[in-house]
């Protein structure tokens, strides 16, 4: 599992949201897809939840004329817009896995205690990068009237971090961190103990390294990275040289 570096989002180091001691009946999370385009799971300890969840692309049927998504949904709205969706009634001791990009809304039908966990890894890192790019584009469009100001790109990156949770530098630093761990796994006899008693096998390490190479090559072709005053392209080229051993 890959996690954002400490301090980049308001979760613990492991990405586990502390369970709420008492989630009141009839409360809900608004309609959304999970942070960064991450995977997530949610395990009920006590109580009953109701989920409405849909595959990627179905959310576009709910856009208004400006492209905005609704704050809240229900079955009537989804049926009227011919949205393909699933209803999940989650009981105690049951877990729901949410794939990347699946929009959903959740209701607490009773008082509830649950544990929720978000993460991304080699399987969905390309989607996280695409979401990061899309959010930067949205930020730049939002303040496009300020393009002539000094350090416009730096301001956009600051706003990207504030709105999305990470910016381009954070993303590259995350790749560097994961690459250092996987390269160490690939070249030394001693394996890192990730959690409990799990140690990655060689196939897992090589798969992660190949995905890191692919995503780093994509980053080096990005114009924002190429022209960044922070020498982000140099960072990416340096990482690529380390990965192409």
Automatic annotation (TrEMBL):
Give the reactions, separated by semicolons, that this protein catalyses: L-lysyl-[protein] + 2-oxoglutarate + O2 = 4-hydroxy-L-lysyl-[protein] + succinate + CO2
SUPFAM superfamilies, per the entry: Clavaminate synthase-like (SSF51197)
Q: Which SMART domains match?
A: JmjC
Gene Ontology cellular-component annotations: cytosol; nucleus
Q: Single Gene Ontology BP term?
A: positive regulation of translational termination
GO MF annotations, alphabetized: 2-oxoglutarate-dependent dioxygenase activity; sequence-specific DNA binding
Xref: Gene3D superfamilies:
Cupin
What's a Pfam family this protein contains? JmjC
Q: Which residues form the JmjC domain?
A: 1-136
Which PROSITE patterns does the record associate with it? JMJC (PS51184)
Give the family per the record.
Belongs to the JMJD6 family.
- Recorded protein name is Jumonji domain-containing protein 4
Q: List the gene name.
A: Dyak\GE12742
């Amino acid at each position: 599992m890959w996690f954002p570096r400490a301090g980049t989002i308001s979760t613990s180091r492991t990405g586990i949201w502390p369970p709420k001691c008492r989630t009141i009946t009839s409360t809900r999370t608004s309609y959304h897809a999970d942070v960064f385009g991450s995977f997530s799971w949610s395990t009920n300890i006590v109580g009953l939840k109701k989920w409405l969840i849909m595959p990627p692309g179905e959310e576009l049927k709910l856009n208004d004329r400006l492209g905005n998504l609704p704050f809240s949904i229900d079955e009537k709205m989804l049926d009227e817009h011919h949205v393909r969706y699933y209803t999940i009634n989650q009981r105690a001791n049951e877990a729901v896995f949410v794939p990347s990009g699946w929009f959903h809304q959740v209701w607490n039908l009773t008082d509830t205690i649950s544990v929720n966990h978000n993460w991304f890894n080699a399987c969905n890192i390309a989607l996280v990068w695409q979401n990061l790019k899309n959010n930067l584009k949205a930020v730049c469009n939002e303040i496009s009237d300020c393009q002539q100001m000094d350090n416009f790109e730096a301001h956009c990156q600051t706003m990207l971090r504030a709105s999305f949770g990470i910016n381009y530098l954070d993303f590259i630093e995350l790749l560097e961190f994961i690459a250092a761990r996987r390269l160490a796994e690939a070249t030394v006899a001693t394996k890192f103990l990730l959690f409990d008693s799990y140690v990655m096998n060689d196939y897992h390490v090589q798969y992660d390294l190949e995905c890191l190479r692919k995503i780093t090559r994509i980053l080096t072709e990005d114009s924002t990275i190429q022209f960044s005053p922070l020498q982000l392209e140099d960072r990416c080229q340096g990482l690529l040289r380390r990965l192409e051993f």
